[in-house]
Amino acid sequence: MPTKGDNTKQLIKDTAKHLFSNKGYASVTMKDICDACNLSRGGLYRHYSSTKEIMLEILTDDKEEMKKLLECSFQKKVPAVQLFDGFLNMIRADIQNGANRFYFVIHEFAFVESEQNEYMENRFNSAVQMLSMLLNYGKRTLEFKEFETNAIATHIAFFRDSIVTSSISLHLSNDLIDQQLKLIKDMVIRNESE
């Protein structure tokens, strides 16, 4: 059961993510977060020393949550096609519901906090690793085609980052999004005749 401190930390992270998405990473101050959370400076600094520390925890939580979800789905033997469809629908939702702004913030964070390049590279490699786990799972269940897993996982990770980030400044019609997601799906999912 979450403690009061856990709940406060989650409030801080949720609020900071919202502020980062709306104002940009570099424009958000600890004071902004204090004000938005209705916390004293001491209340905020009890949990976090900087916006960088908050951002790193948001990114780490996101990665760990995704990995747990994937592993749980494998244990429950959820069909790989269903998991992959869910992943593609997540990309669509990120484009359509404004989550794309946070993807831009992640890039801004990497630029502003250049000493975090190794962390960001590890985060990307972790995304490729999770996609590889899903792709290998689908290959074992014979739902997916045969392909070089790491190459396809890397391509999909770049695709996701690119299309979601680009959707901030480009108008992507539903037809275009459908077309691009279908290309990814066709690259991976085995046809009935195969």
TrEMBL record:
Name of a matching Pfam family: TetR_C_17
PROSITE patterns per UniProt: HTH_TETR_2
DNA-binding region of this protein: 29-48
Protein's UniProt keywords contain DNA-binding: yes
Keywords attached to this entry: DNA-binding
Residue ranges of domain HTH tetR-type in the record: 6-66
Alphabetical list of InterPro entries matching this protein: Homeodomain-like_sf, HTH-type_Tx_Regulator, HTH_TetR, YfiR_C
GO molecular function: DNA binding
Transmembrane segments: none
UniProt xrefs under PANTHER family: ACREF/ENVCD OPERON REPRESSOR-RELATED, ACREF_ENVCD OPERON REPRESSOR-RELATED
Name the record gives this protein: HTH tetR-type domain-containing protein
